[in-house]
Amino acid sequence: MPITRRIYPQVLAVPRPYGYLYSMWIRSVCVASLVCGASIQPLNAHPHIYVDAGVQFIFDSSGDLAALRVTWIYDDLYSLLITEDFGLDADLDGILMPEEREKLSGFDMNWVEGFAGDTVGFGPEGELGLSRPVEWSADLRDGRIVTTHVRALDTPIDPTTGEVVLRLFDPSFYTAYSASLTPQIRGRTDCLTEVVKPDLDEAYAYLDNALNAQPLDSDAELDFPEVGEAFAEEVHLKCGA
Question: What is the CA radius of gyration of the chain?
């Protein structure tokens, strides 16, 4: 997994939301806390972005799982930085005009080659092949950016042949995903879903070990170990008797 995960239209000179957005993040946190003191997390602390995530399982007319609709709700601070950077919601009423929604739509969909979309799926026959994102949308609700996109399965699968598991995580742990939105089902009535959380004690122990194994001269940010999968939250789908 390359360090660059998404490319943002207005910050193409940097691989992630560093540069202008990152400096704004630092200034915003400092202002919010009045002084940059010990209460501020270290600049190399991960994660930097927090996302409430959800998924809708979409079934075709044959009852096969054909696509996923993924929802991401970004944290308040990151949402503020993006809306400011895009020049949106100038009247501060928290409502985007249609042309503003169009401008925002797709800001997080410019994926580099090989980026898995922070969503990995497994079915009875192994890992699911998922398309690049289509049918994306974006809006601002209660001060938070909400985006959706659809990913089609390369080959629809019969969900009654075994469990389907989606794992939501950023390998670099730059973004933390919480499967906090209730999973949705469209096209079948005999399916159940369950959200499975990771063992955080084990996950943080894995993170500590990975950090301790880093060379002393490594860059704390750019060389941060890919530990995100240890923190992955899962959405399980079972259908049929």
Answer: 19
Instruction: Measure the CA–CA gap between 12 and 35, rounded to whole angstroms.
Output: 31
Order of strands across the sheet that contains 164-168: 126-127, 119-123, 164-168, 233-239, 191-196
Residue 29: exposure state from Cβ atoms within 10 A (0-12, 13-18, ≥19) = middle
Tell me the average confidence (pLDDT) per consecutive run of 10 residues in the chain, 241 residues long: 37 32 42 41 67 98 97 96 94 93 96 93 96 97 96 97 96 94 97 96 87 72 75 96 61
Helices 19-33, 76-85: inter-axial angle, 10-degree rounding = 130
For the chain, the structural domain boundaries read 19-215+224-239
CB atoms within 10 A of CB 79: 20
Residue the block writes with tokens 């660059």: 4
pTM of the model as a whole = 0.80
**C-beta separation of 121 from 130 below 8 A:** yes
